[in-house]
Structures are given as structure tokens and as C-alpha cells.
Amino acid sequence: QVQLMESGGGSVQAGGSLRLSCTASGYTSSIACMAWSRQTPGKEREGVAVIYTVGNTYYADSVRGRFTISRDNAKNTLYLQMNSLKPEDTGLYYCAANPYCSGMTRVPGYKYWGQGTQVTVSS
Fold first, then answer.
1. Rounded-to-integer distance, Cα 53 and Cα 32, Å
2. How far is residue 91 from each of residues 32, 40, 88, 105, measured CA to CA in Å?
3. What is the number of alpha carbons within 13 Å of residue 6 lying toward its C-beta?
4. Residue-level pLDDT, tens digit, the chain, 123 residues
5. DSSP readout, 50-92?
6. CA gap 21, 14 in Å, rounded
7. Measuring CA to CA, which residue among 18, 23, 52, 10 is closest to residue 35?
8. How many Å separate Cα 23 from the centre of its chain?
9. Are 119 and 90 within 8 A, CB to CB?
10. Dist. CA 39–CA 77, nearest whole Å
11. Other C-beta atoms within 10 Å of 112: how many?
12. Which residues pair with 81 in a beta bridge?
């Protein structure tokens, strides 16, 4: 089993920045891909950014150029740097991990999930 815990959410004005962190524990050697997902009001949970063990990164069109995903394998920690935040970025952000890698649309099917951290962007 793998446990994930997010931190770093909060409230910010449009144009501001936040950095989310996710610490993994347990059987972390089983993880191949890690991702950030979000649940925004009125929408289904969606993948935001994915990072492979070898470092490849992929982003949803809505955040590309504004968000950066990274991971520190030595610390078992995943990050999401969010810049130029918009009100439509408001939502509950989840850290997710999976034993194998797949496309952005498969993120909601990942095996392991954190409890989420709230991000609120005001206009």
C-alpha cells in the first residue's frame, strides 16, 4: 500500500501563485507515475499534470505554461508549482500515484489517492 498526503493549498488572488506538495509513504518503490488531479465545481475529476519516474511530464491544456510538476524521488515528494492562477483553477487538488503510467485521461483511474487540498482563487 501507498499513502499520500497533500499540503500547500490555500486562498490567493487571481494572478498569484501557490505550491502544492505531496509526500508518499509505504511501498513507494511500486510507484511508476505520479499526478495531480483536481475536482472543480460542476465538473468531474480531471488530470492536471503527470510525471513519469524517468522525468517525462505532461499537462492538461488548461494549465500548460502556468503549472509545473516535479518530484524529488529521494524525499518521495511530488510538487505542483502553480503560477498565474485563475478563478477557474479553484477546486480540490489531489495527489495520485499508480504502479504504471498511462495518458492524462487515465489519471482518475489511478490506484492511490491523497485526501486533497483546497485551492481557492478569487478575482
1. 5
2. 26, 4, 8, 18
3. 27
4. 999 999 999 999 999 999 999 999 999 889 999 999 999 988 999 999 999 988 899 999 999 999 999 999 899 999 999 999 999 999 999 999 999 998 888 888 999 999 999 999 999
5. EEETT--EEE-TTTTTTEEEEEETTTTEEEEEE-S--GGG-EE
6. 20
7. 52
8. 12
9. yes
10. 21
11. 20
12. 19, 68
The C-alpha cell 510538487 sits at: 79
What pLDDT digit, counting tens, does each position of 76-107 carry? 999 999 999 999 999 999 999 999 998 888 88
Coil vs helix vs strand at 109: helix
The answer to whether residues 46 and 108 touch, using CB atoms and an 8 Å cutoff, is: yes
9 phi and psi angles, rounded to 5 deg: -70, 175
Which residue is associated with the grid cell 522525468?
55
Using DSSP bridges, classify how beta strands 33-39 and 18-26 pair: parallel, antiparallel or unpaired. Answer: unpaired
